[in-house]
Amino acid sequence: MLKLKGLTKRYATGDLALNNIDLEVPSGQVLALIGPSGAGKSTLIRCVNRLVEPTSGTIELDSKDISNARGGRLRQARRQIGMIFQNYALVERLSVMENVLSGRLAYVGFWRSYFRKFPESDIKQAFELLERVGLETMLDKRGDALSGGQKQRVGIARALMQNPKLLLVDEPTASLDPKTSRQIMRLICELCQEQNLATIINIHDVALAQQFVHRVVGLRAGEIVYDGAPDGLSPEILTTIYGEEDWSVDKRDDEEETSKPKEQDVEAALLGGHP
Amino acid sequence: MSQSPQLLEPRLLAAKSGSWRPKPKISNASLRWGLNAAVLVYLVLLYFSVDINWSRVAQGMDRGLAFMGSFLTPDFISRGGEIAIGLRESLTMTFAATVIGILLAIPVGLGAARNIAPTPVYFFCRAIIALSRTFQEIIIAILFVAMFGFGPLAGVVTLAFATIGFMAKLLAEDIEDAQRDPMEAVRATGASWLQWINYAVQPQVMPRLIGLSLYRLDINFRESAVIGIVGAGGIGATLNTSINRYDYDTSAAVLLVIIGIVLMSEYLSGYVRKWTA
Amino acid sequence: MPIKIVNDTPIWQRREPLQQRLIWFGYFLALMLFLLCWKIISDNTIWEFLSDAHIQAASLIGRMIPPDWSITGSLLLPLWDTLNIATVGTALGVLIAFPLAFLAARNTSPHPSLRAFALAIIVSSRSINALIWAILLVTIVGPGLLAGMIAIALRSIGFVGKLLYEAIEEIHPTPVEAVSSTGAGRMQVLAYSVLPQIMPAFAGITVYRWDINIRESTVLGLVGAGGIGLQMNAAINNLAWGQVATVFVLIFATVIFSEWVSAKVRHAVI
Ligand SMILES: Nc1ncnc2c1ncn2[C@@H]1O[C@H](COP(=O)(O)OP(=O)(O)O)[C@@H](O)[C@H]1O
Ligand SMILES: [Mg+2]
């Protein structure tokens, strides 16, 4: 279904975010991409639908090379690739229904979409998806009136509205509480199974990943360092992915908490914000 | 949301069977139709009350093209002396008026801030602001020319007066929005009124005041190009004469000079704001 | 920490000495510049005229009070014209400014050269006052409402265009990415992710400019571009200050009204 060959990305800043990645994902497989932050997980999935331009390498979708597609051909390819975002990326001032229907934009002309005259079948499908994610009664609510978990459900429905063959999911649970996280992960994995989608999920939480996915790929500094079954993640392998840590006791959480604010400080400084 | 499930039900059923329209932006139907009708009525009235002499407009088209063409051949030379004098006068008026206007706007602004001024002072200062803001610079200029005679002095007074209204209003709003805690903390130290302003209010409003002053400098320059039309000095007089003579090449030159200066001041104020931020 | 040692005791200072000196130098320069400007102005002023300025002012105000209410009826139609100039002018200006803003915003501009072109139009329009446009247009399309409307429109393009393109540059980028990644076309991305985000700003900017345009269109008649300014000009030329005062009162009322409307609308959309 998806085949990456020699995928490399070097940002204009000089960071080598991806180094010669080869990866193949068949239909119906849910793959978790794990790795420390900055490993290149987001870069990888954003290269696949070309939100980020890869420096070199090829991306094949259904054995068609889309790494150089432009204009109409790129839109055609993107239509087959659904994407779900960490911060939901809803258009907050549009209603839930409009957000979900925006997944059909590549199938309808500009004026039809502008006047919200979507085909009957699209509206039916949108309603079914909203029922599936449990939000059908909220179709008139505005995006900014929803809770985090609800927003993510709308994001899922929007991605599936595209009738995609491939689903890219960037840290779907990073902004959610543990319970909602599990619900969202379960929902995504069930829907992928039902619709036989190839799926790549970026995720921080190794335990959560192990519970739901078929295959785990570990990324470190832009290179694949593990590719195998979820229960093959031994402490040694986690160490190669994440670096030295005592994996027997779950200390990951507090480490993350202490490292995150620092990272944000650095980011703010890099963005040129005045103190 | 206040919507009850019973009200939503028909929309849900419709959506289930494939028909859905977004909700209207204005949910109150009578208000929505009232507004639509009002717009319609206005358009009809507009149609009947605006009559335009289209043949005169058609006649003017080649003159319009000539004017646009003259932007490609601006003439800075033949009336270069007049342009230079007008420009110098405009710039001096602008700077002097901005300085005077801001110096006067500070007490007026302090007086117009409800949280620090006594009520009679408040109303007096607000009245000054309202007067200065309602009337176009040009109207004020007419009055001051009538009082002071032709020349740049009337222009300076006009621009200064307009600056007072603009700056004092924004300053007063800033002070009203300023944080309460530092103001009370400084007052609690037993500081005098002036010390209080200096230590508690000034630091909070100063950066924005600087930014606004530069913005006003820019506005005053643009206005100085206008008030010359009624005899208050500056480059406006030069411009007005050239237009009335259909000397579009010179007009284009003056307009380009104005655009250039505004552009320059925009860049400069960008830098200054970066320093002071 | 800027600390100065005087007689072995440290004295705290707010700024580094060099910085402090630069600031004082800046103030000094500004003062010198101001004095220079003042000298130029004063050289061009006939101060003798000023000796009776207070008498002039007093007599002016004396002749304005009471206002000559008898002409109120004949002022209503010009006032209506003024309103129309402002409204139609704003509408025309906004119509042109809207696409221009998308060309000018860094994140939606299709090409850098188009961006430069749009920015040039915006700056030119912003730099030149509506009254100057009106003088020009009166010589081109003849005196009347049309000149006023176009003048107001030309001035509004820059104002609305600038504020709108700044609003476009400040939108959240992630919804744009999300809609692009569905395979939507360029215009669809704008309509579904950019437009909803800028709509409140757009409405606010438009009524704000309409409010300003009401003030501006009150004076366009001075140069023959229609509206109540025409009557004001006639009254001033006849030195009929009582009538001028009536015009002022009407303008004042209209401006207050438009400010009220604009505040209401802005409150409703934000
Ligand atoms: N827009 C960008 N410009 C420059 N460097 C970037 C950009 N986005 C990510 N990077 C760099 O690329 C590397 C991988 O980032 P990312 O793909 O976001 O990692 P992850 O999603 O695994 O946390 C990091 O070193 C990051 O600093
Ligand atoms: Mg990431």
Task: Provide a descriptive summary of the structure in words.
The complex is a heterotrimer of chains A (275), B (277) and C (270). Chain A is α/β, with parallel strands linked by helices. Helices cover 39% and strands 21% of the residues of chain A. Chain A is built from ten helices and ten strands. In chain A, strands 6-7-8-3-9-10 form a six-stranded mixed sheet, sandwiched between helices. Chain A has a four-stranded antiparallel sheet with strand order 2-1-4-5. In chain A, helix 5 (120-132) packs antiparallel against helix 6 and helix 6 packs parallel to helix 7. Chain A is globular. The N and C termini of chain A lie far apart (48 Å). The longest helix of chain B has 35 residues, at 193-227. Chain B is mostly helical and 277 residues long. Chain B has helices at 5-16, 29-49, 54-70, 80-111, 119-134, 137-148, 152-177, 180-188, 193-227, 235-244, 248-276. Chain B has a domain at 86-276: MetI-like fold (Orthogonal Bundle), CATH 1.10.3720. Chain B is 79% helix and 0% strand. By secondary structure, chain C is mainly alpha-helical. Chain C folds into two domains: 3-62; 69-269, Orthogonal Bundle (MetI-like fold), CATH 1.10.3720. Helix content of chain C is 77%, strand content 3%. Chain C is built from eleven helices and two strands. Chain C has helices at residues 17-43, 47-50, 53-64, 72-104, 112-127, 130-141, 145-169, 173-180, 186-217, 229-237, 241-269; strands at residues 3-6, 9-12. In chain C, strand 1 and strand 2 (9-12) form a beta hairpin. The mean pLDDT of chain C is 88. Bound molecules: adenosine-5'-diphosphate and magnesium ion. Residues 11, 13, 15, 17, 35, 37-43 of chain A line the site of adenosine-5'-diphosphate. Adenosine-5'-diphosphate binds at residues 11, 13, 15, 17, 35, 37-43 of chain A.
